[in-house]
Amino acid sequence: MSAFLEKFLKQSQTNNLKTKGLYPETILDLDIKVSFGMGTPTHVPWISLLGSGMLTSNGYYPVYLYYKKEEVLVLAYGISETVEFEHPWTKEIVDENIKISELLDKPFRYSGSYVFRSYQIKFTNEKVQFFSNKKELTAEDLSRDLEKIVNEYKTCLDITVKDEGSDFSRGLFYMEQQLEDFIIQNWNESEFGKKYDLIEEDGDLKSQQYRTGVGPIDILAKDKESGDYVVIELKRNQTSDDTVGQITRYMGWVKQHLNCESVKGVIVCGKYDKKLDYALKVVGNVEVFLYEVNFSLKEYRK
Question: What is the C-alpha to C-alpha distance for residues 107 and 265, in angstroms, rounded to an integer?
């Protein structure tokens, strides 16, 4: 993992601000964003590692911050400066680690983020060396540090998405509620509409938020060819484990109470993660659809 760090630090010594295609898109199942500044080189280039639903401008995440003037690279428990995120990281992390403002004298930015590890950087003969307490670190040392903070981060994310009162969870719920409505309204033009039919009774749509004895199913449909029921669930403010447990519970209810031999499950989510992948290896008849949100601006012309 040190190779991308070395490339990042070398580029920080130039005026090249381009990042597209130069860095991996994901590391340890987290999305990667890299910035050397916009328009002009920044004093503190960074690499953020983002969980699902997190933004560098609105969220919390592990981040590498290179303070060029001090020649110090900080691996930090990052916190967005643009939008204040509610309840970032855990109390233990906040209590046990110093802020960047305590590590560096008047840091240019990001003073409120917490230090996981700091490295002194030395450039020699096209090589980048990493030091901690005057000891040179190996690639394995750097990888261990990154893996540790990422594991802590994933634990924090599980706590965050389960907190239904948090801004993050309310935001996810709002976004995916709109997605549910969009799927229903555009059913015939979607991939679902090619294979499945919505359920109507006496002219009324029954498919959306279909009531069961174990909670409402987001969308209940029927396979066009087999006539089997299809349980469609959006991965809302919950973990992958919760999602798999929920959809199999609904499938079991449908199989028993709607008198059908076979039930199919479909999970709709923004990102396919390893936890979901492992769970579905032993859960039969469940597939995954990924959704993408595209945003574009068009000039208004009369």
Answer: 51
Integer Cα distance of 75 and 218 in angstroms: 40
Instruction: State CA 186 to chain mean position distance.
Output: 26
Which of 29-43, 64-78, 196-210, 232-246 ranks highest by mean pLDDT? 64-78
Using DSSP's 3-state secondary structure scheme, residue 277 falls into helix
Residue 56 pLDDT > 50: yes
What contacts 121, CB < 8 A, 6 or more positions away?
9, 66, 71, 72, 73, 128, 129, 130, 131
Q: Give bridge partners of residue 115 from the DSSP assignment.
A: 76
CA distance 231 to 217: 7
* Extended strands (E) in 42-178: 46-50, 60-67, 72-79, 114-124, 127-132, 135-136
Radius of gyration over every alpha carbon of the chain, rounded to an integer in angstroms: 24
Beta bridge partners of 67: 72
CA distance 48 to 54: 10
User: SS3 for 170?
Assistant: helix
Instruction: Write the pLDDT tens digit of every residue in 292-301.
Output: 655 555 565 6
Tally helices (H) and strands (E) across the chain. 8, 16
- To the question of domain 2-162 being in CATH 3.30.450.40, the answer is no
d(CA 90, CA 153): 9
In sequence order, the 6+-apart residues with CB closer than 8 A to the CB of 276 are 235, 240, 243, 244, 267, 269, 288
Report residue 162's pLDDT band, with 50, 70 and 90 as the boundaries: very low
Q: Are 2-162 and 167-290 equal in CATH topology?
A: no
CATH architecture of 167-290: 3-Layer(aba) Sandwich (3.40)
